[in-house]
Amino acid sequence: MRGLTLYQSHATLVALADRRRYPNQGGLYKCIETRPRNINYRGPIAIHAAKTFPPWAVAAALGSEWIRAALVAAGYLKLADLPLGVIVAVAELVDTERIHEHNAPLEPERSYGDYTPGRWAWHLDDIRALPEPIPCRGAQGLWPVPQHAMARLAEMGVAV
Fold it and tell me: What pTM did the predictor assign?
């Protein structure tokens, strides 16, 4: 399994896309991660919240009505409540596609990423929020999930 580190609030927005655990989100979720480059990997992926919450990410979360609404609907009333340095969900990376002006998604998904033409949309499916976050060190790009985290996923009964 590979891990993908995202800054908050994006890591939590992906976890909120688990409709089994959060059935009343009303479409307020993130199923696409935007990146500057393409990858060939398809398969299971751990969604990791970075250990830092940089000021630009805080400003982005506070400045977006869509992000604020999704977080509040899930019970996150303060950004300080978002977990850091942990795996929050697992998903399947099922496809990637180059972003063009004609294929950018509608709101709220559009507010959750950088849909500048030429970037890449990484499509996530079968998103499963973890019952409790797993402390783990992240990295840039895709990285191998360490054995301790894989063991904890197995203990939780999360199939990967």
Answer: 0.93
